[in-house]
Amino acid sequence: MILSYVYKLRPSGSQSAKMDLWLNMLRSHYNWCLSDRIQTYHQQFLQGDYCHLRSKAEACPLTCCVVKNGATGNPWQNSGKKRNAGTIQDAALVELKAARPWYKSIDSDVLQRNLARLNIAYQNFFNGRGFPAFKNRSNFRSFEYKPKGVKLMGNKVYLPKIGWMRFFNSRSIPDGFAAKSVTIRKKTDGWFMSVRLEDQSVPKLLALPISKIKTAIGLDLGLSKLVHCSDGSDIANPRFATNKTTKRLLKIRQRRLSRTKRGSRNRKKQAVRIASLHGQIANRRNAYQWFVAHKVVKKADAVVVEDLNIRGMSKRCQPKPEAGTGRFLPNGAAAKRGLNRSILDASWGNLIAKIEYVAEKSRKVLLKVNPRHTSVTCSACGFVDKTSRVRERFICSNCGHFDHADKQAARNIKHKAVVEYGLNLIKVRRDSAKPKQLELFETPSAELTAPQRRQSDALLGNRRVPGNLGRQLNLFSQDISDIPPVESPFF
Ligand SMILES: [Zn+2]
């Protein structure tokens, strides 16, 4: 079983200076290795009498890295396997330390893990992701230890070549677990250590087999509410980065930054202020998402979500050229930009990843279904029609079923999982005798104030309808209230 815990470190001044120095050296090493690989790749196509691409220096067996890696160098390992770029660069670490003795101050495992990082980047590229990028100060902020040298004792950790360092022991490591890898990461508010813990005596938890799933819950992720559940409940979206206050604060701080002189000390200070605000937002969002994930996973054996293409959803608008004039027509880019920010702020992908982790930990499963037509299908009769949905209202044009659009989308998502995965769910008995939908049409009496109404509801034992759902549906309840609500066959 694998867990990942994060602790905040308390390095001394000299220790944090040392780690800063390491980061710089490791970044330079990473970038050098990447450029070495790129050059080596291009050199195999050279036709002329030179080997260095930019300077066109003459081919020389002593300086040319083509020679070292391929043709005349030894392309074979002792084991008989072919040397790949990773193993060649790994073996060159000795030469690196001889030529640049200051690299000896870095733990050799850290150097090796740094190279492994480049290997992983290349592997990802071969699997269809982007080409490895050169790193700068802002996107190279961590290094990794192999676990064998790292020792944990109480609130102190021993990091090889750095020494004993105190940390905030915010959660104790469970018995039987040992560190699998230790990553040191620099953030705006200090240094952090993330530890991957593994207990080998506990076998890796197997996901719950499909046949054993008894209950499922469908989730519709959105912006007005972060999550609509198929059981009728919902979870608010606090919009950590795109609410009014934060947006204004960010704007002010950003403007102040733009008015400082480039390269000045004030600019640096202001940049730190902005970065710490972003860090704060990220922390809040993370904490909230863990809360949501735990809340959702508790509800059922299987959590069903849509397999969303978030990158596609948050793309820019295509420009609309006007024919003949060379100008452009309005394409709604400004509105879309705001929407994109909201989508990225809601961070559905991260939420789904957290739900998956929590589900795995509690021996439950996360299922993904195709999002096609989930929001325009009637959950009562299965009729697909785009015109059934008007914003957050859903009125089936076939059978007259009406509901909150996202809620009934959540039900469709659950139903899709039942069909696609062949789930065999047990029927959960509902305690309320009258159908839930009827409550939506009880107009709250106008005389009472909100607190009074809440009080009287509490006395009567009625639970309040969550959110502002009642008010939204009342807008159109007059004209269709004579149609009886249809019982959903899936629910
Ligand atoms: Zn219908």
What features would you describe in this structure?
The protein is built from 15 helices and 17 strands. With 491 residues, the chain is α+β, with helices and mostly antiparallel strands. It folds into two domains: 197 residues, no CATH class; 259 residues, no CATH class. The strands form four sheets. A seven-stranded antiparallel beta sheet has the order 2-6-7-1-5-4-3. Strands 10-9-8-11-14 form a five-stranded mixed beta sheet, with helices on both faces. Strands 15-16-17 form a three-stranded antiparallel beta sheet. About 8% of the residues have low confidence. The structure holds zinc ion. Zinc ion (ZN) binds next to loops.
Question: What would a concise description of this structure say?
Answer:
With 491 residues, this protein is α+β, with helices and mostly antiparallel strands.
Lay out the secondary structure.
Layout: E1 2-10, H1 13-43, H2 65-69, H3 85-91, H4 93-99, H5 108-126, E2 142-145, E3 151-153, E4 156-159, E5 163-168, E6 178-187, E7 190-198, E8 216-221, E9 225-229, E10 234-236, H6 244-258, H7 265-297, E11 302-306, H8 310-313, E12 320-321, E13 328-329, H9 333-346, H10 348-361, E14 365-369, E15 389-390, E16 393-395, E17 402-404, H11 405-421, H12 436-439, H13 450-460, H14 469-474, H15 477-480
Parallel strand pairs: 8-11, 11-14
Antiparallel strand pairs: 1-5, 1-7, 2-6, 3-4, 4-5, 6-7, 8-9, 9-10, 12-13, 15-16, 16-17
Bound molecules: zinc ion.
